[in-house]
Amino acid sequence: MKMFRRILFSILTLIIVFLLIGFLLPRHVYIQRSLLIKSRQDLLFDNVNSFRNWTKWSPWLKQNPGMKISYSGPESGTGAAFSFNRDNVNPGKGKFTLTHCYAYDSIILDMDFLEYGKANGKFIFKDLDSASIVTWIMESDLGRNPVSRWFGLLMDRLVGKDLEIGLANLGKITSETARNQTFTIEEKVVPERIVLTIRDSCSTVTIEKKLGSFYKKISQLIKNKKLTVTGPPFAIYHNYSNQSFDLEAGLQVDIRIEPPHGINCYVIPSQRTVMSSYFGPYNKTSVVYRAIEKYIHDKNQIITGAPWEVYLTDPNIEKDSLKWQTDILYPVK
Question: pLDDT (tens digit, 0 to 9) for every residue of the chain, 333 residues total?
């Protein structure tokens, strides 16, 4: 009986010591990993700025292919979020939300693991011309729970490995993205042209349908008036953001006419432009816009109007999106 009491007393003593030491351990966990990646800062940023891209590189999502994921908020940027639900893994449920996105420099997110607590994440992107340094940081407040603080001692070793794997995956898929995005930049004078256009607002969801409708109406007018098309279809983006556009689309024709209501006919004078010929899918052109704007800035030029796109490949004929050519032009002086 005395032996049992001694053993019980020893166990209780160890538990008390364990808890007392736990209260003395740090309540804050800070984990940081960095990696030099031979890729552009903007491409790396884009692959983190949308949770729909995380399935390609995040170790937590790649390791759990059966995970149920639902997205909410905008597709990218501040407010974008996703919730996850997975079986036989803890934490099994949670939600990640992008709270602050500073274009190409940093991204801050909240990670809510429900009953397992919360954490904050941060990505920092540093441009080194031909490469970038990406830093991934995770922070968590373990609160007053001494047991959690003991586990906190292991977090850098356990979670840090995941951050290293994630950064390596991010570098790999970003390099693949860069190889699939081919474009050049040059300066070009575009001659005067007569155009038929339709202008309206649209969203990222409706833009494809709107463009199809515009070109159909204009093509029918060209047929009725027996005009000659003198150039490929184009679209002018007067104002645009991640979600909406002030869009004017049209075709070049040989002569000026008096168009019906809703269709414009006018002459665009000769313009000096900075142009890029891009080959790839239409939804990946943002990187080209940024490259042109950087070129204009570096050359101390001034943008004098809205940019426009010229579509030289018919996707109904050429099915390989990597072969679709789009010329993107900015008027400058």
Answer: 566 566 555 555 555 544 455 445 556 778 889 999 988 888 899 899 999 899 889 887 766 666 788 999 988 889 999 998 876 665 568 899 999 999 889 999 998 877 667 888 999 999 887 789 999 998 876 656 655 554 655 566 767 888 899 999 999 888 876 666 667 889 999 999 999 999 999 887 888 899 999 999 999 999 999 999 999 999 999 987 766 789 999 999 999 999 999 999 999 999 999 999 988 888 778 878 888 998 899 899 999 999 999 999 998 899 888 889 999 999 999
Which residues are CB-neighbours of 71 under 8 A, at least 6 positions away?
A: 51, 52, 80, 81, 82
pTM of the model: 0.57
Contacts by 289-295, CB closer than 8 A, 24 or more apart: 289/328, 290/42, 291/183, 291/185, 292/185, 292/328, 292/330, 293/330, 295/185
| Full set of structural domains in the chain with CATH | 24-179 (3.30.530.20), 183-331 (3.20.80.10)
